[in-house]
Design brief:
- This protein starts with a strand and ends with a strand.
- Helix content is about 35%, strand content about 25%.
- Helix 1 packs across helix 3 and helix 7 runs antiparallel to helix 8.
- It folds into two domains: about 160 residues, Ribosomal Protein S5, domain 2; about 130 residues, Alpha-Beta Plaits.
- Strands 1, 2, 3, 4, 5, 6 and 11 form a seven-stranded mixed sheet that branches. It has a four-stranded antiparallel sheet with strand order 8-9-7-10, sandwiched between helices.
- The chain is α+β, with helices and mostly antiparallel strands and about 300 residues long.
- It contains eleven helices and eleven strands.
- The structure holds L-homoserine.
């Protein structure tokens, strides 16, 4: 089964491990076959392939496949071919996309009848490859598309999917500085997250995350952008992001309604309400990094759909 699995951006500022959005581009193309035999095979092609481990125990797709195989009392071999279009270790859900694709494909191919919560939960297991632990924000977006909210804990995993009204004008400008290996990158960034948080900051972040959710429901990019101001996690991680302050300033001065680190970084993502403004912002973000002597890649995307079959 051949699938298209999108990049995603998690947190959107204040929604650490809660809020995410699937992007219209870039995406991975993943081919999954179930064959006779036993085990899991992974091959990776594409621009970023050399950065992706093919050992199934270190690869998000491999972890998801082995999780599903461990439930089934059946002999089978799962062969996974990943054509990597999503930059790796950039904070753009490059581990979530193949993980979501494997959960989706095996559910269909083996008629497992998983609920969407179950599918997101299984895909989240794959995040151990880069984060060391499960987190469900990116895999929710990669699985269901558009904006997503996840809540983990009492009562199990809850997932809420928000598709902005048709015709909404929400544009993301994304800048990707050079990145390293996928393995363990997010885990390091998670190690910086503060253990204790003051109440004033919690109140600010809850209000800001609520603004983002309201903006997604209404299709209002200004509300989304104004909500993207995190006072808890982002200040602790900003040191990992090259040219953080310069990129932020450039985006806001060019008309962005808001900007945040994308996932665990080092990419940054700004929001605006027209393609033209979004292009101007991405250029300004790119130039801000070039001015610091940092090569980067910048592009524009919109909220998009989740994993889908290409057959
Ligand atoms: N919520 C996760 C984190 C997203 O910020 O660590 C990683 O892409």
């Amino acid at each position: 089964m051949k699938l298209r699995a999108p990049a995603s951006s998690a947190n959107l500022g204040p929604g650490y491990d809660v809020l995410s959005v699937a992007l219209s581009e870039p995406y991975d193309i993943i081919d999954i076959e179930v064959e006779e035999g036993r085990g899991i095979g992974i091959s990776v092609r594409g621009e970023y392939s050399y950065m992706v481990p093919t050992d199934p125990s270190r690869n998000s797709a491999g972890l998801v496949a082995s999780r599903i195989l461990s439930w089934l009392d059946a002999e089978m071999h799962v062969e996974i071919e990943i054509d990597k279009g999503i930059p790796v270790a950039a904070g753009l859900g490059s581990s979530a996309a193949p993980a979501a694709a494997v959960a989706h494909a095996l559910d269909r191919m083996l008629s497992l009848g998983m609920s969407r919560e179950r599918m997101v939960e299984v895909a989240g297991y794959g995040e151990r490859a880069s984060a060391g632990v499960e987190h469900y924000d990116n895999v929710a977006a990669a699985t269901l598309g558009w904006f997503d909210i996840v809540r983990v804990g009492e009562g199990g995993l809850r997932v809420f999917n928000i598709r902005p009204p048709k015709g909404s004008k929400i544009f993301f400008s994304i800048v990707v500085p050079p990145t390293g290996s996928a393995y363990g990158k997010t885990g390091k960034a998670r190690g910086l997250v503060p253990k204790n948080v003051d109440m004033k900051s919690v109140i600010w972040n809850v209000a800001s995350a609520s603004m983002i959710v309201t903006g997604a429901v209404l299709g209002d990019p200004r509300l989304i952008g104004e909500g993207m101001r995190d006072v808890i996690v982002e200040p602790a991680r900003s040191g990992l992001v090259p040219g953080y302050s310069e990129v932020r300033r450039a985006a806001l001065e060019s008309g962005a309604f808001g900007i945040a680190i994308s996932g665990a970084g080092p990419s940054m993502m700004a929001v605006s309400g027209s393609k033209e403004v979004a292009r101007r912002i991405s250029k300004a973000m790119w130039e801000a990094l070039a001015h610091e002597g940092i090569d980067s890649m910048a592009f524009v995307a919109e909220p998009g759909e989740g994993v889908s079959s290409m057959e």
